[in-house]
Amino acid sequence: MSQIEVYHYDAFTTKPGKGNPAGIILNSETLTTEEMQSIAKSIGFNECAFTLSSDIADVRIRYFTPGHETPLCGHATMASIVALLEQERLIKKDSYTIETLAGILSIHVSKNTSYYQVYMEHIAPQFAEFRGSKKDLANALNITENEIDARYPVVYGNTGQWTLCIPIAHIKSFEKMKPNTEAFPNILKEMPKASVHPFSFSAFASDADMHARHFSSPFSGTIEDPVTGTGSGVMGAYYATFVEPARKENYDLIVEQGQELKKDGRVIVHIQHQDDLKIAITGTAVFVKKFMIDVE
What we know:
The chain has a 17-stranded mixed β-sheet that branches. The protein has a two-stranded antiparallel sheet with strand order 14-15. Helices cover 17% and strands 38% of the residues. By secondary structure, the protein is of the alpha+beta class.
């Protein structure tokens, strides 16, 4: 048995204990896939990230929930880049590329006096029809069907991984949500392994444009992601596609998430109209602690 070093960072916040925790393993070259999965399960965070060398990018990152490997994770990317910079594992520059299972993505980094801001490109937005029961979906969230905003569609969205986008009519509905995640696969028949992402076009805080929660697939081994990077990216793509499709200038949306879990975080979503719709996010990450974990 050996031990490996884990860096705990909280992403989408500058305050330890807020935002979304990620376990970052910088010494990953000798680890097998099975060992990475075992480490992620032992740590128990929504995601752990393992950084590796890459022949085609500045760094390769693999992401694991306690239950499985996932192609991309926004908050663990923020945490990985900040950890690599703070631990002097990356040459400091303005732009990087990361190799992920979702593709090679661009990262831009800036720093004010106290913390890094990480700009992360997402893959091209995709949407797919949801043909399941909205009533069953609402029941699985512990809300009623009329709390789903009927003005807009319930659809699967992807800017890095698939999630079910559910527009919610009133922000007060979020506090009563108690997900029955075990029911999700039977309701999400088209994509039974997708997560579930209810969101609204209003927010608790005056400095935010949208609010969300993010409930995990039961296959992931977790229940809820406090503040979600890829989910926020999907929200931006959804807004540009279904809410203001005629708005063709570039603009930003501020997404708040985590209030119900007392984890209050912020994600800036960049909507960019070039030849096609492009989505990016900006976030932060703060070091919490370093600890050791056994690897069998």
